[in-house]
Specification:
heterodimer, A: alpha+beta, Aldehyde Ferredoxin Oxidoreductase,  A, domain 1, Aldehyde Ferredoxin Oxidoreductase Protein, subunit A, domain 3, six-stranded mixed beta sheet, B: 96 residues, alpha+beta, five-stranded mixed beta sheet, 5 strands, binds iron/sulfur cluster
Chain lengths: 637, 96
């Protein structure tokens, strides 16, 4: 059965009461917030009271498909999950690919909001219009891949789509993830731990319906045109060839590869962690796409290592090889593949896992973690065996160190004491992505103001490097001059960050992959607005689309303000602000306190937020039509 | 520093046939007024026609001089190279 794209439906699931119900989404809300991440931000603000325990019954999980997810618009198959983060106590949105979003759409829903806490482990089974909570007691404690097999067996259909947590989430590890369609990780901020706290082991879905755009003929023609542009884009070709890990050699040569817990910016033989190496040495055995994407940046690898055992898995992504590899001083790709597989099966974010371990390695080498505290592990940099053991212990909270590191780098540093907080590469409680922000000022600003903590998955300002004409065109459009495509500059960084955060917001509300709109540039605000308009049947200009994205960024900020976050919290990790780049072409560069304050002034001014506190002004909230939504925060005229 | 090879330290990644994932290093003779663009053109001329290097368009190349992307140098591809410079060429890659 075909459903109009404009007629969105929200499925509520109350785990405490075992009840489900459906709510229709008003068209004017869809138009104002674009759907997906945008509407989820508004609902999170309304549903979760200030001070609520992220792992308690008051928190909600909102799985939102993009407004165009399930259509043929290229790369529009992505979804978001929004909640309050147990890692930061602040707003959290994670984006994820795979095919679960499209399945939920075809089952007749656009959003699933999970409330309460189940008395016993359950999984949610959505079979078209039929919704059921099934016992997951027999699945509790099991790894994500085994559970995927078991659920498919149970419902008798290997083609259904799933999202599953592993043992790490059950144990409320603060960086547990949620694995979608078996191989795609919704990874950051401890999203999996929220599922674990609700005793929701999985969401499984079979959807057999379809979607009807308001102006089908024009919509399909435009989608085809954008798909053609995407296929011809250099960024797309590179992502297909080598995946995201193709960027490793360039970063290493430019002195921007985070290594040894960010104490170095290059690593010897770093190219052995690259997508190119995986291809040329025969590890790569296949490629895969998220729903409706022809870029196919996901890959499958196989390794038959005598030392580490066999591996068949997806990825590894750029951030994974940096965090589990270079950050821990490891360039043995077979060991990294093993670590990646373990994290995926146990259900842990590879970025934070790599970082807590690299922090522990530095702390051990500096003598602040004793051999006894390390439970007998030799935690020196480069010891892949110790890393693999520690991954297991963290997921199961085994031993003193495993349990401590499961709380994240900030909590671990507070417990260990001394100066160890200085090399805890975190801010707001989230481990930073493995991008060196000292020599890239838009990245530095974007990471500092990111509502979920310092990472690249809310606003990656790749265009500031100006590597392609398309990237330089974006910079010219946003700043007025191509010359600002230089990451070392501090001028015009707010403009660059604002454009990117809005482009991310719009992409994720509609379901588009940000790789296709901010690394490749074939999907852009203009054609996103046109596709939205043709699909939903309401007018939408590029300016209105970007304004709606600004609206969602502002709600996300207000959520954090209501939790008590202020300007002082928009920070980078201490090492990034106090230790200059140690060597290489960017030697001596830093984004210090004074520079960051200047960047923050630029950014808050551009947003219409109060400079002293960073609180959005009432005049700004009124302009965005949010004064009745973002209530309960200090009023600044 | 007698005994050390002089010239340009050249690092190529993924540009030769069968060396997709490995860095190849060589010393390239330095000549006065040699620019990054000339060096690239010379390399392409000498390349095995089956190697990616031979057919790669220049705008798809990540060219670095001492780790700095060529477009950030004042004269870009026309920047003159000095004795002892390290020049890296590889295919641009995107996304993260
Ligand atoms: S580019 Fe990659 S991550 Fe993005 S939608 Fe396509 S396959 Fe998925």
């Amino acid at each position: 059965m075909l459903r109009d794209i404009a007629k969105q439906r929200l499925l509520h699931v109350d785990l405490s009461k075992g009840k489900t119900w459906v709510e229709d989404v008003p068209l004017e809300d869809l138009q104002k917030y674009l759907g997906g991440r945008g509407l989820a931000a508004k609902w999170l603000y309304e549903q979760v009271p200030a001070g609520a325990d992220p792992l308690g019954p008051e928190n909600v999980l909102i799985f939102s498909t993009g407004t165009l997810t399930g259509t043929s618009a290229p790369s529009s198959g992505r979804s978001s999950i929004t909640t309050k983060s147990p890692a930061t106590g602040l707003y959290l949105k994670v984006s994820v690919g795979g095919h679960l979003g499209a399945a939920i759409k075809y089952a007749g829903y656009d959003y699933v909001m999970i409330h309460g806490v189940s008395p016993k482990p359950v999984y949610l089974w959505i079979d078209d219009g039929k919704v059921e909570l099934r016992s997951a007691e027999h699945l509790w404690g099991k790894g994500t891949r085994e559970v995927d097999d078991l659920i498919k067996e149970e419902v008798g259909d290997p083609t259904i789509q799933t999202g599953i947590i592993g043992p790490a989430a059950e144990n409320k590890v603060k960086f547990a993830c949620f694995m979608v369609s078996r191989y795609n990780s919704a990874s950051r901020g401890g999203i999996g731990a929220v599922f674990g706290s609700k005793r929701l082991k999985a969401i499984a879905c079979r959807g057999t319906g379809g979607l009807r755009p308001a102006k089908g003929k024009e919509f399909f023609a435009l989608a085809r045109k954008v798909r053609g542009a995407l296929a011809a884009d250099a960024g797309s070709e590179s992502l297909y060839n080598w995946g995201t890990a193709g960027s490793i050699p360039g970063l290493n040569e430019m002195g921007m590869l985070a290594a040894y817990n960010f104490s170095r910016v290059t690593i010897e033989h770093g190219e052995r962690l690259s997508g190119q190496y995986l291809l040329s040495e025969g590890y790569l055995i296949g490629r895969e796409s998220c729903f409706a994407c022809s870029t196919a940046c996901h890959r499958f690898v196989r390794s038959e290592s005598r030392r580490w055992g066999g591996v068949f898995d997806s990825g590894p992504e750029l951030e994974t090889v940096m965090s589990l590899g270079a950050e821990c001083g490891i360039t043995d790709i077979e060991a990294v593949l093993k670590a990646n597989q373990l994290c995926n099966d146990l259900g842990m974010d590879t970025i934070s896992t790599g970082h807590v371990i690299s922090w522990a390695m530095e702390t051990y080498e500096k003598g602040l973690i004793s051999p006894e505290q390390a439970d007998g592990l030799d935690l020196r940099f480069g010891n892949a065996e110790a890393q693999l053991a520690l991954i297991q212990r963290i997921a199961r909270r085994e031993g003193l160190l495993g349990d401590l590191l499961a709380e994240g780098t900030l909590a671990a540093a507070q417990e260990i004491g001394g100066d160890s907080w200085k090399w805890a590469i975190q801010a707001k409680g989230l481990e930073q992505s493995a991008v060196d922000t000292r020599a890239a000022k838009s990245y530095a600003l974007a990471f500092a103001v990111n509502p979920r903590g310092p990472d690249h998955l809310m606003t990656e300002t790749y265009a500031e490097f100006g590597f392609t004409q398309e990237a330089r065109d974006v910079i010219r459009k946003v700043t007025g001059d191509e010359k600002y495509a230089d990451p070392r500059l501090t001028e015009k960084r707010a403009e660059i960050v604002l454009w990117h955060e809005q482009c991310y917001g719009a992409s994720e509300a509609l379901g588009f992959c940000v790789f296709t709109s901010t690394a490749a540039f074939a999907v852009n605000p203009e054609n996103m607005a046109q596709m939205f308009s043709l699909a939903v049947g309401v007018p939408m200009s590029e300016e209105e689309l970007m304004l709606a994205a600004r609206r969602m960024v502002t709600i996300e900020k207000c959520f954090n303000v209501r939790e008590g976050a202020r300007r002082k919290d928009d920070r980078l990790p201490w090492r990034m602000m106090n230790e200059p780049v140690p060597d290489g072409p960017n030697k001596g560069m830093i984004t210090d306190q004074a520079m960051l304050e200047n960047l923050l002034d630029q950014y808050y001014t551009a947003h219409g937020w109060d400079l002293e506190t960073s609180i959005p002004r009432q005049s700004t909230l009124k302009y965005l039509g949010l004064d009745a939504v973002c209530v309960g925060i200090p009023v600044i005229p | 520093m007698a005994g050390l090879p002089t010239g340009i330290r050249l690092r190529l990644f993924g540009l030769s046939q069968g060396h997709g994932g490995r860095i190849e290093e060589q010393v390239w003779p330095h000549t006065p007024d040699l620019t990054v663009g000339q060096l690239w053109a010379d390399l392409q001329r000498q390349a095995d026609p089956r190697a990616p290097l031979a057919s790669l368009q220049r705008d798809m190349v990540l060219a670095l001089v001492n780790g700095v992307p060529v477009q950030r140098l004042e004269r870009g591809w026309d920047a003159t190279l000095a004795e002892g410079d390290t020049v890296t060429f590889m295919v641009k890659a995107f996304g993260g």
